[in-house]
Amino acid sequence: MAPLPPCDGEPRVSPLPEPLRREIEDFLYLEARLADESRYEEWEALVADDMQYWVPRGRADYDPADRLSYINDNRARLATRIRQLKTGLRHAQTPPSPMRRMVSNIEILAVDHEAGVYTVGSNFVLYELAVQAGAALRVWPGRVTHRLRRVEGRLRMSRKVVELVTAEAPQWNMAFLI
Question: Across all residues in the chain, what is the average pLDDT?
Answer without folding.
Answer: 90
